[in-house]
Amino acid sequence: MFPSNISNRNIDLTSWMYVANSDTPTANDESLSPTVSALNANHFPTPSQEELISVLVTAYSTSQNIEERESICCKLKELRDELIQQRENIFEFVHEGTDDVFGILREGKTANDRDEYIRKLMTFHAIGEKIKQVREGGGLQECRVDELLNPHHSIYISGDLKALKILVEGHTNSASCSDASILVPDLPYNKGGLEFG
Predict the structure, then answer these.
(1) What is the pLDDT of residues 31-87, one digit of tens each?
(2) Helices (H) and strands (E) in the chain, counts
(3) How far is it, in rounded angstroms, from Cα 116 to Cα 75?
(4) Domain 36-181: which topology?
(5) Domain spans, the chain
(6) For a 10 Å CB count at each end of the chain, is N or C smaller?
(7) Contacts of 197 (CB under 8 A, 6+ apart)
(8) Where is pLDDT greater, at 8 or 93?
(9) d(Cα 38, Cα 29) in Å, to the nearest integer?
């Protein structure tokens, strides 16, 4: 159930400037890091992604019942599955299954690929946060939409979403953890010696 006219939307969406990075990093460039500890303009949704956020949130917020709210589940599942696949295609792991696990960019992948993944992760995060605001503000019951937007902790993007949320909100939930130690994507999440199922 996507509304045909979304011009009268009552959802306040923050617009972010999209900056395309056309430079290819060199071997000595810090931008070859598979992770970031701070967000920049390349990590925020593009105008077309902002429109997708708006359409999905509007469809959810104008629904009359759970069945209508769940009409966006197919698109959310598609977005989540694309994130999972993109993560697999961009990053690989060294010493997986040990406490020394770390991630690297796959051969041929660049900071632009990493930033595109983070941008899509940010889009997914923004959808989740805005839908949560609508649900809580309207006293709506949780449904399959919430399950898709909050992946089970055994799904690797769950760690990426948690780390991204900390960077977006600008604080940490733990006194032993500083913002500088938060990396997105959280590549070692659930890949080390201790894994959660």
Answers:
(1) 679 999 999 999 999 999 999 999 999 999 999 999 999 999 999 999 999 999 999
(2) 6, 2
(3) 19
(4) Ferritin (1.20.1260)
(5) 36-181
(6) C
(7) 154
(8) 93
(9) 17
